[in-house]
Structures are given as structure tokens and as C-alpha cells.
Amino acid sequence: MLKWALIFFVISVITGGLGFTGLSAATAGIARILFFIAVVIFLIFLGLALMAGEMLI
């Protein structure tokens, strides 16, 4: 997920440099959404791991 966010960010930077501002804004929005989805998934798995660790003790 973070890989795709980075790819869309790079596309956004390149298109912004070439003057395609509409496309740059769209790909930046996609990159932002993918990044936040990845962070939410990470936090869910971190919470599950912490709960599983407490059950073993």
C-alpha cells in the first residue's frame, strides 16, 4: 500500500513539474488516501498484536 502511495506521489511531482496541475492534484489526492489507509491498517494490526501479546501472559 505504501509502495503505491509512493508511486502516485512521484507521478504527482513529475506531472506538477511538467505543468499538468490537474493531474498532479489528482495523483497527490490518491497518494494521500492510500497513505492514510496504510496507516489505519498498521494501527489496527498493532492493536491486535498488543492484545494477542497480553493474552499470552
| Count of the domains | 1
Assign the structural class, choosing from mainly alpha, mainly beta, alpha/beta, alpha+beta, or little secondary structure. mainly alpha
| Number of alpha- plus pi-helical segments | 2
Helix proportion: over 70%
The proportion of strand residues reads under 5%
Major beta-sheet overview: none
Uncertain segments are none
Q: Cα distance, first to last residue?
A: 33 Å
User: What value does the average pLDDT take?
Assistant: 91
How do the SSEs run, as a string of H and E?
HH
Mass-distribution shape: rod-shaped
Number of strands: 0
Any idea what the radius of gyration is? 17 Å
Write a short abstract of this structure.
The chain has two helices and no strands. It has 57 residues and is mostly helical.
Summarize the structure in words.
The chain is 93% helix and 0% strand. The protein is an all-alpha fold and 57 residues long. Helix 1 packs antiparallel against helix 2. The longest helix has 36 residues, at 21-56. The mean pLDDT is 91.
Topology:
Layout: H1 2-18, H2 21-56
Helix pairs in contact: 1-2
Characteristics:
57 residues, 0% strand
